[in-house]
């Protein structure tokens, strides 16, 4: 049997499975499988280093899920998710720094490179609840404001992409310039605890992994819920025929803003969880390049599908980490070639491979 | 399917996850709960065989690759020479390399991999302060050893890092001494906007205040910036008689072009640079910076048997035109210093090395380096150099003897620096 035939057979089998299982059963099975892989298989099969790496990649995948919603479903190509990832990450990092410094304490880097006093806008982050609130509400408010202003002016397509990229570039420059209060290009690092739990303890690192895994699965379920709701249909309709949606009496700007807000909050939560896991946040984690990498994973995986963005993002990060050591200078070329190939031959990403092959077979018959 | 139904399903799914999460939540140590302070990592280094693994971590891709690849070449030269002479404690060195990719988080990840997956006995490398600060918590958590080969901004010491490059009192402070000695009264500071220039200039400000020197300007350009019209016109208006330059990389090309266009020369208003070594001279172009001053601890032109041997061995390995500079020499020496520490401790164990590090010395190409067990830095001779038309740098002044490292500038020689180090993290315990 050739590979193509085998793939076709697998495709038929999955189709068969799809017919047999009702959507709700598939949801349960899928969730169970994902939970099994992340909560049981991963901790058992991976070394400590790989486990920590995967935990970071889960945080990137959260950003990818959001991009899948905004871009895949809503048609908003956002090249600036690093902005929200950064807001979440820096808010968390500031809290951890202040928490390590103790009540009334000053983070070490501030006395070395700054005035030795905590700036007023840092102070609220001493409180864990304000920090968590900021991580969710600030990106949501910012995305709502920006999104509505942009979409109501009917800015779309490449113009929106360029605007989002410019925003993230400006954000990175701002962070680098404020050495005394943001750590500049060095960023914030060397955290000891996470809400009272020592980050040096491998057991707590494992718990953080589970937290990230649970959050990610929750986000995927939420997106599934949105995709299958009336709102999801409206979002896809807006993506495909914004004018018609408008003529039907809906406000497309509002529809798009909701998806943009959700994706921004996902990115911010990803950033916030990234900080205790990676132990560092710096402008190079939030600037233009990572923002593009978030989108690349989604594009390769399949932006319009439910699982494409997550799996694409995880696969790209994982392969990247493995190849980088062995072929340091080749890796970026490989990445570029993969991107071109996938978008050239599978414009909807790897997740649509089965469908494309089936159609090919149908054509030749 | 109706919306409420989906909502219920989704909520149930999330609830299930939350339960799983809580059930698996056998939480670990709290902060400050006794044992958490001690390194929890058990060493996985294999010392049973004929060889011992060490790790090199340098940026082989990204913007820093141009500086860090030569450092790795120097490390490999040292490894080759040590192996040719019988290895360390009778074991051959076997190198695992990792690419830091010019990204702090990647450096942290790869350091963790080297220590916990490859189980290396020691790690050599790192360049930017951002990369070092990203790796520091990893080395402390995994209880590994990092040998860091680049001059830096001081105000740091970790028991898990050996700083083989100069700290501020071995580079910045002697450079200011030199300018003062030359009768310079009005100094203009220009630097890239990151931690090293900011900290260096903070120290220079304190120094100048105490010694009656005017700082007539302090300007920062974003890393990689190539627009220096504003900064050079400010320099012109300031009436400065010398410039202290902490710019990095390509920014130097643009700065020196603008500086020359404005009519400045090395004779009228000399520029003293602390981030331009022989490797960078090639990239900037000699014609742009000929006759300007630099401050380092090592130049390729130093005449000593140890340096002649180093330079000729390097050129034999990497070509007659190969150029060596300060960070490369530090990297090369760091491997020999580690070897000397291991031999003194008679063990590859991190704790044994830390306890035996004090007083270990090595006759490096730049002169004898002696390790301070107190702060894990080494003694170094400061050298002011002038850039020659050949692209090499000649020493014009050197400190009378090797300078004892004082990363926090708390010694009796630096009364003007009181208060600069408040808030710095604690010194190593041994």
From TrEMBL, chain A:
Membrane-traversing stretches: 27-46, 52-72, 79-98, 129-151, 158-177, 207-226, 247-267, 273-297, 304-321, 333-357
Localization per record: Cell membrane
Keyword vocabulary terms for this entry: Cell membrane, Membrane, Transmembrane, Transmembrane helix
Gene Ontology MF, one: branched-chain amino acid transmembrane transporter activity
Gene Ontology CC annotations of this record: plasma membrane
Keyword Transmembrane among UniProt keywords: yes
UniProt-listed Pfam families: BPD_transp_2
Topology in membrane: Multi-pass membrane protein
Predominant place of localization: membrane
Keyword Metal-binding set for record: no
Name of the protein: Urea ABC transporter permease subunit UrtC
Gene encoding the protein: urtC
UniProtKB/TrEMBL annotation, chain B:
Any one Pfam family match given in the protein's UniProt record, by short name: Peripla_BP_5
UniProt keyword Signal present: yes
Signal peptide: 1-29
Protein's GO biological process: amino acid transport
Keywords, ordered alphabetically: Signal
NCBIfam families linked: urea_ABC_UrtA
Alphabetical list of PANTHER family matching this protein: ALIPHATIC AMIDASE EXPRESSION-REGULATING PROTEIN, PTHR47628
Protein name: Urea ABC transporter substrate-binding protein
Species of provenance: Galbitalea soli
């Amino acid at each position: 049997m050739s590979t193509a035939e085998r793939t076709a057979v697998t495709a038929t089998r999955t189709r068969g499975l799809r017919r047999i299982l009702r959507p709700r059963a598939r949801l349960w099975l899928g969730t169970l499988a994902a939970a099994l892989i992340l909560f049981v298989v991963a901790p058992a099969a991976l070394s400590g280093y790989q486990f920590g790496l995967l935990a970071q990649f889960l945080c990137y995948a959260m950003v990818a899920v959001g991009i899948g919603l905004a871009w895949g479903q809503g048609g908003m190509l956002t090249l600036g998710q690093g902005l929200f990832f950064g807001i979440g990450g820096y808010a968390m990092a500031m809290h951890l720094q202040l928490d390590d410094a103790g009540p009334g304490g000053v983070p070490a880097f501030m006395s070395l490179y700054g005035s030795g006093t905590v700036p007023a806008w840092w102070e609220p982050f001493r409180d864990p609840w304000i920090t968590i609130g900021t991580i969710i509400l600030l990106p949501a408010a910012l995305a709502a404001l920006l999104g509505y202003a942009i979409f109501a002016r009917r800015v779309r397509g490449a113009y929106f992409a360029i605007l989002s990229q410019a925003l993230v570039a400006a954000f990175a420059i701002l962070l680098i310039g404020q050495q005394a209060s943001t750590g500049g290009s060095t960023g914030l690092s060397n955290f000891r605890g996470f809400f009272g739990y020592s980050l040096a303890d491998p057991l707590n690192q494992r718990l953080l992994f589970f937290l990230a895994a649970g959050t990610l699965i929750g986000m995927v379920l939420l997106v599934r819920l949105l995709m299958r709701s009336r709102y999801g249909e409206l979002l896809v309709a807006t993506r495909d025929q914004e004018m018609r949606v408008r003529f039907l009496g809906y406000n497309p700007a509002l529809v798009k803003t909701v998806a943009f807000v959700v994706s921004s909050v996902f990115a911010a939560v990803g950033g916030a969880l990234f900080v205790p896991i990676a132990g560092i946040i710096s402008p190079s984690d939030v600037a233009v390049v990572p923002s593009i990498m978030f989108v690349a994973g989604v594009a390769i995986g399949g932006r319009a599908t439910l699982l494409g963005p997550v799996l694409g993002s995880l696969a790209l990060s994982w392969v990247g980490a493995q190849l980088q050591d062995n072929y340091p200078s080749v890796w970026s070329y490989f990445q570029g070639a993969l991107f071109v190939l996938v978008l050239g031959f599978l414009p909807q990403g790897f997740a649509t491979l089965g469908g494309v092959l089936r159609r090919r077979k149908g054509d030749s018959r | 399917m109706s919306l409420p139904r989906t909502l219920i399903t989704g909520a149930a799914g999330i609830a299930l996850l939350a339960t799983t999460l809580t059930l698996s939540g056998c939480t670990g140590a709290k902060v400050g709960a006794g044992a958490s302070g001690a390194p929890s990592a058990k060493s996985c280094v294999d010392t049973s065989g004929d060889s011992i693994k060490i790790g090199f971590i340098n940026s082989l891709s990204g913007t820093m690759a141009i500086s860090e690849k030569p450092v790795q070449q120097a490390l490999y030269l040292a490894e080759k020479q040590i192996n040719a002479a019988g290895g360390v404690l009778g074991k051959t060195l076997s190198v695992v390399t990792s690419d830091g990719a010019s990204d702090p988080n990647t450096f942290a990840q790869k350091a963790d991999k080297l220590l916990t997956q490859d189980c290396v006995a020691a790690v050599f490398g790192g360049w930017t302060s951002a990369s070092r600060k990203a790796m520091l918590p990893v080395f402390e958590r995994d209880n590994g050893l990092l040998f860091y080969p680049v001059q830096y901004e001081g105000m740091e010491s970790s028991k898990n890092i050996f700083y083989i490059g100069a700290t501020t009192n071995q580079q910045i402070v002697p450079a200011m001494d030199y300018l003062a000695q030359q009768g310079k009264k009005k100094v203009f500071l220009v630097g890239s906007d990151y931690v090293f220039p900011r900290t260096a200039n903070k120290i220079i400000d304190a120094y100048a205040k105490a010694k009656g020197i005017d700082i007539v300007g302090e300007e920062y350009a974003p890393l990689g910036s190539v627009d220096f019209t504003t900064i050079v016109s400010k320099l012109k208006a300031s009436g400065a008689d010398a410039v202290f330059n902490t710019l990095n990389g390509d920014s130097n090309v643009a700065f020196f072009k603008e500086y020359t266009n404005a009519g400045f020369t090395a004779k009228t208003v000399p520029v003293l640079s602390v981030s331009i070594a022989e490797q960078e001279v090639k990239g900037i172009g000699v014609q742009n910076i000929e006759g300007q001053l630099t401050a380092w601890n090592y130049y390729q032109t130093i005449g000593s048997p140890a340096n002649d041997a180093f330079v000729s061995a390097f050129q034999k390995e990497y070509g007659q035109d190969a150029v060596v500079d300060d960070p490369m020499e530090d990297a090369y020496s760091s491997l020999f210093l580690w070897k000397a520490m291991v031999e003194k401790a008679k063990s590859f164990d991190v704790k044994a090395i830390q306890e035996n590090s004090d007083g270990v010395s090595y006759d490096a190409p730049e002169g004898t380096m002696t390790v301070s067990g107190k702060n894990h830095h080494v003694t170094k001779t400061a050298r002011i150099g002038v850039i020659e038309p050949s692209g090499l740098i000649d020493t014009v002044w050197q400190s009378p003897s090797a300078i004892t490292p004082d990363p926090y500038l708390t010694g009796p020689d630096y009364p003007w620096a009181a208060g600069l180090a408040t808030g710095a993290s604690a010194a190593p315990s041994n």
